[in-house]
Amino acid sequence: MREYHIGQTVVPYEVEWSPDRSTIGLSMDSSMELVVRAPVEASIEDVGDVLEEKKQWILETLYGLAEQEDPPLDKEYLSGEKLLYNGRRYRLKVYEDDVPEPKLDFDGTRFELRVPNDSPVSVRRKRQAVTDWYVEKATETLPSRADRYIDKLGLADVDIRVQALQRRWGEYRPGEVVLHWRLILAPRKIQDYVVAHELAHFRHEEHSDAFWNTVGTLVPDYRDRREWLRVNGNTLAV
Fold it and tell me: Which positions fall inside the YgjP-like metallopeptidase domain (predicted)?
C-alpha cells in the first residue's frame, strides 16, 4: 500500500494497472482508500503528477466521506421493519408459509416475506431473499432509465448491465455501462444521475469541464443529486 501526503494528511492508495486504459483515473469509496487506475505504460511519476493535480479533489472527497451518515443498523427482517425501494420506505410483514426458502414479494404498499413453516430461518437466509428480490427488480428496471439519455447523446449499441460493484455506483466500460443493483434503493432521480453520469463518459472519458457540462445538459441539478448520494450513499444498504 502506497501513501500520498497532503500536508499532515496521509492518504493510503493502491495502483491498479490496466492494459485497457489510456489515462489515469482516481476513485475513493467509504473505506477512504484511494484507488488509482492507470495504463500499464504509465510510471509512478506519472501517477504522482496526477495525484498532485487532483489534490483538492482528494481532500474534498476524503472529508466528504468522513461526514457521511452512518449506515443503518443491521436488519433482522422482522414484521414492522421497513425496506427501502426507489427512495421510499415500505413496511415489512413476515409470515410462515409452505415454501422451501424465504421469498419476498411487494404489492405496491408493503413488502411480504414468506418463510418456511417447518424449520427455523436464519437472518442470512432472509437477507438473501431480500437481496435476490432487489437484484431482480434492478435488472428489470434500471436499464430502461438510460433510454432517454442515450437518445439525447445520440448513442447507439449501448449495453446497460446490473451487478454488484465494489467501489462505485456505476461504471463506464467501452460500449457498456454497469450499474450497482443497490441503486434500486435510491430515489429515481438519483438513479437517473448515476445513469447520466456514466453515459456522459461515452463523450468524455475524464471528469473534465466538458464532461460535467454534458452531465448538466442531461441532469441540470446534478450537483444536488451528487451531493445527496455522497451524504446518503451509506444508507442504501440491505
Answer: 23-230
Q: How far apart are CA 134 and CA 185, in angstroms?
A: 8
Contact 39, 17 (CB under 8 A): yes
Strand partners, 35: 14, 27
CB-based contacts of 2: which residues, under 8 Å, 6+ apart? Answer: 12, 13, 14, 15
Task: Enumerate domains of the chain plus CATH numbers.
Answer: 2-66 (no CATH), 82-140 (no CATH), 143-235 (3.30.2010.10)
Beta carbons of 196 and 218 less than 8 angstroms apart = yes
